[in-house]
């Protein structure tokens, strides 16, 4: 079920503040965030946001196509390295 | 035989026959019958050419079916894959997209079981 329109998209306050600050400052700097559940809003387009995946920060360059998704969708938390025996197909 | 949206409709009740078109289920079929004023229980062969033309017109104008619907679905999936989000990755790997377990089951997405030889002791 989708979120009520009245509430608007969810975005962590701390992250929102950083984004507003970023748009004022002309210099673009990477924003680091733990907030994977925050929705990507149009104001973020053009920014690069580093999203924590539990281990490292994954840089996500926000384009228009990503608006409406959540930040966490672009920073996978699990990495599948293949099963034991198949050495040939190891990446 | 009535041919609508590139599909030959079988000689069944109109309500059922319409569901042979991709994108039309029971609800939509009933809706179409209501809109065109055709009795949903009449068999396809008993429909007049006029009725068939009516059906064809309403389906072509008001509904997205067959090729156009298929391409829309494919495009939606392609969009997910292109932006590299989690759902897109799952589509790429051919694994379930909506968080189902994959330790067992998930055979619809994964295909037939590929048996792996047991470890030697």
TrEMBL record, chain A:
Give a GO molecular function annotation for the protein. Answer: structural constituent of ribosome
What PROSITE patterns does its record include? RIBOSOMAL_S19
What InterPro entries is this protein classified in? Ribosomal_uS19 (IPR002222), Ribosomal_uS19_bac-type (IPR005732), Ribosomal_uS19_CS (IPR020934), Ribosomal_uS19_SF (IPR023575)
Q: Which GO terms describe its cellular component?
A: cytoplasm; small ribosomal subunit
**Entry keyword rRNA-binding:** yes
What Pfam families is this protein classified in?
Ribosomal_S19 (PF00203)
Alphabetical keyword list: Ribonucleoprotein, Ribosomal protein, RNA-binding, rRNA-binding
List GO BP terms, alphabetically: ribosomal small subunit assembly; translation
Output the SUPFAM superfamilies linked to this UniProt entry. Ribosomal protein S19
What function does the entry list?
Protein S19 forms a complex with S13 that binds strongly to the 16S ribosomal RNA.
Family matches, as PANTHER family: RIBOSOMAL PROTEIN S19P FAMILY MEMBER, SMALL RIBOSOMAL SUBUNIT PROTEIN US19M
Among HAMAP family, the record links this protein to: Ribosomal_uS19 (MF_00531)
Q: Which family does it belong to?
A: Belongs to the universal ribosomal protein uS19 family.
What is the designated name of this protein? Small ribosomal subunit protein uS19
Record lineage: Bacteria, Pseudomonadati, Spirochaetota, Spirochaetia, Spirochaetales
